[in-house]
Design brief:
Radius of gyration: 20 Å
Shape: globular
Domain tRNAHis guanylyltransferase catalytic: 6-138
Enzyme class: transferase
CATH topology of the domain at 17-153 and 211-233: Alpha-Beta Plaits
CATH superfamily of the domain at 17-153 and 211-233: tRNA(His) guanylyltransferase (Thg1)
Protein name: tRNA(His) guanylyltransferase
Strand content: 5-15%
Binding site for GTP: 29-34, 76-77
Distance between the termini: 40 Å
Bound molecules: adenosine-5'-triphosphate, magnesium ion
CATH class of the domain at 17-153 and 211-233: Alpha Beta
Number of strands: 6
CATH architecture of the domain at 17-153 and 211-233: 2-Layer Sandwich
Order of helices and strands: EHHEEHEHHHHEEH
GO molecular function, one term: tRNA guanylyltransferase activity
Length: 237
């Protein structure tokens, strides 16, 4: 860039560098996807095309940053990318990392849309967009807890949504009645309601719905019990 008397404005820029020696988690999440999913008529509670599209977009992000990413994990409209503690990506600048991950993810999502939603074009007034944040975590124990936290969230949400929508779609309850029926119930009670009232064994639901999706550095998709496998996932890191 040519020197000019205006160049001093650059001095106002801040460089927020993520702490050294810390693992970095970049989490992206769809903006107003409740509305977005209604507009594009996602199947409830789990539209498989939408999940596969999220996974495909995440896989391409992982492959692009394969030297820095350890693993990625996603569910619903979110994905977490876990970066090595010694990464020097963009000199660990938070705004660079967050903005580049989320814009690459979004452009992948848009570009891949027609592969998954073959009969429905994206509407310019309803385009998908995502937020992003970076968090630095100081040790592997906390990173394992981070992933376990997202995994438990997947389980809790999916069990609730599965029973809720079965009560509505199969048993003819209104959404309000279904909500009341589930209010205050524990996990095993929800599974019992699903079995006795809807004839569905939760264990037989698709693994991707129950467990979310892990993307390895090689770009493989795994639907595994994160808590049980957590030590294996981070072996060597
Ligand atoms: P960084 O990733 O650090 O932003 P960069 O290569 O994008 O690196 P910038 O300082 O953002 O560098 O500069 C953008 C560059 O893109 C310009 O120097 C120019 O070479 C090119 N460029 C941008 N817009 C145009 C355009 N309309 N026509 C031709 N070249 C362009
Ligand atoms: P925010 O902008 O605050 O993130 P949001 O509407 O995106 O708001 P989230 O908590 O992120 O809220 O939840 C995402 C919502 O998107 C889910 O509650 C669900 O309604 C919808 N959704 C996402 N993925 C799917 C899918 N594969 N199938 C069906 N619905 C989905
Ligand atoms: Mg969202
Ligand atoms: Mg979300």
């Amino acid at each position: 860039m040519a020197k000019s008397r205006f160049e001093y404005v650059k001095e106002f820029e801040r460089r927020d560098v993520l702490l050294p020696q810390c693992y970095i988690v970049v989490r992206i999440d769809g903006k107003k996807f409740h509305e977005f999913s209604r507009f594009y008529e996602f199947e409830k509670p789990n539209d498989i095309r939408a999940l596969r599209l999220m996974n495909a977009a995440a896989k391409n992000v992982v492959l692009h940053y394969r030297n820095d990413v350890i693993v990625a994990y996603g569910e619903s409209d979110e994905y977490s990318f876990i970066l090595r503690r010694d990464t020097t990506l963009y000199n660990r600048r938070q705004d660079k990392i967050a903005s580049l991950f989320v814009s690459l993810f979004t452009s992948q999502y848009v570009a891949l849309w027609p592969k998954f939603f073959t009969n429905r074009e994206l509407d310019l007034k309803h385009l998908p967009f995502f937020d992003a944040r970076c968090v630095a975590y100081p040790n592997l124990a906390i990173i394992k807890d981070y992933l376990s936290w997202r995994f438990v969230d997947t389980h809790i949400n999916n069990l609730y949504n599965t029973v809720f929508w079965q009560l509505v779609q199969k048993c003819g309850l209104t959404t309000q009645q279904a909500e009341n029926r589930l209010s205050g119930t524990l996990s095993n009670e929800k599974q019992e309601i699903l079995f006795t009232e809807c004839g569905i064994n939760y264990n037989n639901e698709p693994e991707m719905f129950k467990k979310g999706t892990m993307v390895t550095r090689k770009g493989e998709f795994l639907h595994i019990d994160v808590i049980k496998e957590i030590d294996r996932i981070f072996e060597g890191y």
